[in-house]
Amino acid sequence: MKAKWNYSDLRPIILEAKKNLPRSDERFSTRGFVPSMAISQTTIPPSDTEMLYSERGFLCGNEQVEADFNEEISQIEKLLRIHEVPLVSRRKGTCEASQKLVDAVNRRSHAINIWTFYAIPWRFDGDLTHIIDPPQDINGSPVIRSLKTSDFIESHLTRLSEAESEICKLRNKYAFWQAATIFLIIAGIVFFQWN
After folding, report:
1. pTM of the predicted model, to two decimals?
2. What is the DSSP secondary-structure string of the chain?
3. If you average pLDDT over residues 2-18, what whole number do you get?
């Protein structure tokens, strides 16, 4: 009997991938937060030109980081196939060979999505930090941008402080509206008590 998979928690696949990959603690996180969300909120997204090169499959210029990315995607694909994780697909092949192709494309697409959720999208290499954006097309190559580590940390901290000040503003607005709501409820109760 096949195991039932919870699509909101594919940590068992990632934990097994971590066993099979070198330096896995630098590559994947299973702690419940999405590293790619953190990076997307603290760095500038890839330019249109970078995305176009990625979609066309041009090499990014950083062979080692790209090789690591492809190794991670291949490992996830392999584990999805081995564990027979059922994948949602809108397409069906017309024959057995075309169905195998559809399944392979679907598995790669799911592997990239899983990588986006669990992978740590930055890699430290000496005084450089490489930021990895997965391809938007399954045949594309990742967009890898390199920054000095000090610039990466400064950018990250700047965006985090901006987010913190935005959170403070939202808390103040929430406190105001909460107080206004309580006041209106009390005023309504008093008004109806007197009438």
Report:
1. 0.72
2. -PPP--TT--HHHHHHHHHHSTTGGGTB--SSS-HHHHHHHHSPPPPHHHHHHHHTT---S-HHHHHHHHHHHHHHHHHHHHTT-----S---SSHHHHHHHHHHHHHHHHHHHHHHHB--EEEETTEEEEEE--SSTTS--EEEEEEHHHHHHHHHHHHHHHHHHHHHHHHHHHHHHHHHHHHHHHHHHHHHH-
3. 75
